[in-house]
Every structure is written in structure tokens, then in C-alpha cells.
Batch of 4 targets.
Target 1
Amino acid sequence: MEKYSKKFVALHWIHALILLFLLIGASLNLPDLPEVSGDLKPFKMHIIIGVVAIFLLISRLILVTKEPKFKLYDNSKEILVKWNHRLIYLVILITGASGIAMAKISNLGEVAVFGAEQKIYSGKSDTVELFANIHDISTKILIALIAMHIIGVVLYTIQTKKKIIKRMWF
């Protein structure tokens, strides 16, 4: 079976683990955007790891152009596979960009990550709330797309008896 390069495989699984950590960690540990007097420390790790996830996405987008293109199907299912990957990448980008915008506009990044005085944190505003909503909705869409991706791998393996996971393993 044809395989992806070890660099691409490693990047895929590192990125997957980081996204899993961000999605689960945020849903279990992060409150809504805090009030001005709230504790901002829980956001530090989320912001730092979120920025790492964006850089990994950019690296993956660069590498994916150099990887072989494998055809799984000869029909509309192939289009669904391609669009699922493209949408995952796009939604990761939207999620990261909305998180960065929210942190930048409210000064949350400067306070939580760089230790600036908390008094510069502006808290919620209409614009911050807009980006918070985009961030929240895009994470839910991302979870759905990742679930579709995993279900697709499982169904393909069951239907074809081909161990497709070997393509994306070391």
C-alpha cells in the first residue's frame, strides 16, 4: 500500500493530538470569556497551544502539496473525502483566527500570555463577543468534521477490507 511520508504522518498525528487537547481541554476547563476581574490564567495554555496548532496547520498545508495524491473512490465519495479535508483545514484556520482576534481585541493575549497588567484587559464587547461566537461555533463544526473523517476511515476499512490507516501510520 502506498504511504504518506513519515514527516507528513508525524505532523498529522501531532496536529490531531494538539487539536484533541485543545477541544477537550477548552470544553472541560475554560470558562466563557471572563469578566475584567476574572482569572485569565486558564487561557494562557489554550492561547499558546492554539497558536502552535495554527503553525502546524500552515506546515501541513505546505507539505500536503508535496505528498502523493491517493484515489480512494472513482465517484462522488472521492469528492466528499477531499472536501472533508479541505473543510477541516478551513475551519481550523477560522477557529484559530477568531481566537487570535478575540484575544487581540480584548488584550487577553497580552495579559494571559505575556503577563501585562490585568487592567488593560477590556473584557467583553460586541466585537469580542462576535469573535467568541465564531470561535465557539467553528469548534463545534470542527468536531463534526473530525467525527465525519474518523467515521469515513472506519467505513472505508469495513467496506473495502483495506487497512487505509496504514497510509497514515509509520
Target 2
Amino acid sequence: MKILKFFGWIFIPYIMIIFQWNKIGKTGKTFGSAWAVIALIVVITNANDDKTKPVASVDSAKTTTATAAESQPAPAPKPVEPSIEDRINNSIIEAVKDKTNMDKDRIVELQVNDHAGTAKEGDKIVIAKMNADENLTNSMVRHGILMQSDDVFKVLFSIPEVEEAALFWQLPITDAY
């Protein structure tokens, strides 16, 4: 039983402090509370960290013999630059992730229109329809949409070709009656 109590204090002190409060002294309460707060902060920050690291793949090396004519290096292919639509799409995904908190695709429709009456030649106008995250209250949903809109606008207007942008947020709801 002591071993379980020991592991409880190591891994879930924020729960152990509640059950052991009357049994520990003043020093124990101080250190236990401090350790519980630190552990709780670590748990919360790790729960919000959704970054995934890509797994690198290693190709097996092949050895071959080549003649002098074959050993000449081939001209390197030019790197293909992503289109403006791909850059905008990737920027939006980078800003607000590709899925909502209900596992729906974030971007419903993305239109990148050419110059349409703006002062700068060759600029783009972006129209994006996106799914919003669900939350507990209407106010929290609205606040979340405003914060995510701010993030999307920042990345969109960091692209030099983008002159104007419009965001349309969708949130499927169910009538309670």
C-alpha cells in the first residue's frame, strides 16, 4: 500500500494532496502543494501540445559500379515552387490546424481569385469557408472564432501576393427542440 501512495505522490500529487491534507504537517502541505501545482501545469501543457514529429525514413544504400561517362553528375532538377493556392492552404493549416476539435476538416472551400479591381497588379483575393471549433457556450465559440480569425489573417497577409481576404465560419448546430 505504501508503494501505491509513493507512486501517487510522484505521478498524481494534485489528487493525493486532497486525500492526504489532514494527515500531513505544515511542511508537507507546502511541498505537496508546490509539487501538485508543478505537476498539474506539466499535465495541462502536455495535453495541449498536439505537435507531432515526423518519422524520418532511411533508404538502404545501393552500391554500383559506373563508367567515367556515367559518373558525371546529372544536372540538379529545379525545385518546384508551390502554387499560391498551396501556400495559402498550408498557411491556414499552420495557423489553425487541419481538423477541428470535432475531427472535421477545417477548410471547407478555398478560393484564390486574381486581380479584381484592386490597386496592385497580380495580387490575390482569398475567400475561405472554414469549420469552427465547438465549445461550451456561444460566447466561447464566438471568442474562439475571433482568435482563430486573427491568426489566419496574420499568416494570410504575410504572403505578399494576398491583398484582401474574407473568412466565412461554419458551425453545425442541432436544434434542442
Target 3
Amino acid sequence: MEDKTPIFWGCTITHNYPYLMEATRKALEALGTKLDEYKDFSCCPDPVYVKAYDKKAQLALSARNLSLPRNKQKNKLLVVCNGCYNILHEANAELKDNKRRQEINGLLPEENKYDGNLRVEHALQEIYSSLPLLKTKVKKPLKGLQVAVHYGCHALYPAAVSEDNPENPASMDEIVRALGAESIEYETNWTAAEHRLQYTASRKPTIY
């Protein structure tokens, strides 16, 4: 039986950015990662509001999602959305504690109790780890294209790519260069998303 890696797309990407979903799917499969796409995942949940409202509810929802790959004896879950990665990675770390995990599992039905033995990885890590292979897969180098990347704070704390320094990440820049394009620096590339919106709203928009 072909081994497949479970992937968590999240609500935002599936509903608002289907093109990112398809591009990620094609990129991972080109690098040899066969995906297992579950239909019964729920919201991650949201990394801000649910946690602020009820921490136990947030952990229970995350634990339920994490239990689904484990029920199929999977050891790794790929996550695409930065917010989903942040909340699931954080919950997974907290649920490594036996006492805390037993408390949260007490809120869940038997089939969704989580054993704490899953590794949560960002899809960016999967692509970056295959960088040498990626270079051999490029058919039409993006020569002459300038790309402005934005990592997003949810993919830096914790770091989506273990080799990255959150204060000066380089993984996405290296992927862009591997594709033949130029990764450029820009004035607000290290600010959080909401600060970028405030900045661009106060001046004439610039298209990168």
C-alpha cells in the first residue's frame, strides 16, 4: 500500500485560496510527497479568538484534529496555513504533557482521544528539505522575475523551517532562488501583516 502523508489545509485556504491549495499539492507531489487528504478535519481552531475565549475548548479542537492521523498510525501531519500551523504546533507541544493530555482527552469521545505521538510540520519544511531535488525539477526557470516573500509571524514563532533563524529567515528566499527568480528585500518585509496593512493604507500602494 502506498504511503501517504496527511495534510491539513485549514478553513482559510480551502475556502478563500483554492489556487494555493492546488499549487501546494502539485509542488509536494512533484517532490515525491503523496498526500492523504482527510474530509473530517475541523477548524484548527482560530489561533487568537477561540484560545482567548476558552483555552480548553481550543486544545480539545486541536487534539481532535491531531487524533485523526494517529488513528491511521501516521506520525507526521503537514500544515499549510501559518495560523493553523501555529495553533496545532503549540497545542501538540502542550499535549505532550501526560496530565494535560488526559485532562483534554476527557472532553473528547473515545475515537478522538489523542495519544500525543504526532509531529506537526509546516509544508514549507517539506519543500525546503527537498531543495536539492527541487532544483532538478525546474523546467522553466523564473529568470528575471523579482519576488517579495513574506514569512508571517505565525510561521516564525515557532519557526516553520527548523533551519531558519526567526530573526532572519532564509528558507523561502532560497526556494525562490532555486526556481531561478530573484528574492528582493522591501521596506516592510519583517513587519507583521497587520502593520503592513496600516503602512500601505497610509501611502500610495506599491505592487510587488
Target 4
Amino acid sequence: MREKSIELLNKSIAEEMSALNQYMFFHFHCDDQDYSLLSALFKKVAIEEMIHVENLADRILFLKGEIVMEASQKVKQITDVKGMLQFAIDSEEEAIIDYNNWAIECSKNADSVTKSLFESLVVDEERHYGIFDSEMDKLKKFGDQYLALQSIEGSKALGQV
């Protein structure tokens, strides 16, 4: 039981580390392009992913396992907002599927605590998916005007408009 749970928990850490690195990259580039609302959104989700890593690591330590702190993939150099949002949507969708499957596997191995942890992650990842999907809908509906409004709002916040 423990070995399989630890393996799945470490896989999750690798995925969460990749997500938080990618979302911080998006945060930096949105901030640089004066899209302050999207920048803040990516930063907020990255911080939530970091909290996921902490919770996963705590569970591994409880199970007397070794934590592997390596991202599963390198940061993708995506700097256009539509590409960022699509990547985030796809990533969250994959995470939802993985965490649901891993919760089922933990249940089969009589590890209800790790199962519950994965189920709680599904809730968060579905919320992230909804946020990114909503932003993509706005971008499709309003196009560049939506991004221009974000830039104007950022300037207002800085007292430049």
C-alpha cells in the first residue's frame, strides 16, 4: 500500500511543480505585457499549486517515504495569452483525470487518506480549470479589446490613467 501511494504522491509533486513553474512564467509575462489581472490570476493559482506540493510532501513523510522534488517537465516558452490559457486548461484537465484515477487506485490499496487527498486536489483543479476556461471564453468573445482593458486597469491601479 505505502509504496504505491508514495509513488503516486511523488508523481503528483512532479506535476504540481511543473504547473507552479509554468504558471509563474505566465505570471511574469502577463505582468510584463501589463495584463495585471491575468498576471495576478496565474500567480494566485501557482501559489495554490505550491500548497498542493506541501500537502503531498506531508503525506509522503507520514508514510515514511522520500520526497522527490523534481518537476515533470520544463517550462514551455509560451508568451501569448491565448496559448497560456489553452496550456493551463489542458494541464488542469489532465490533472483532474490523473487525480481521479489515482484516488481510485489508492482506494483499491486501502489508503483512504491519500485517496481523500487526491479527491481534494480534484476539487481545486476543477476550480482552476473553470477559471482558465472562463478567461479563454472572454478572450474569444472580446479579443484584443479584453487584453486592452486589462492593460488599462493595470495602469489605473498604478495611477497612470
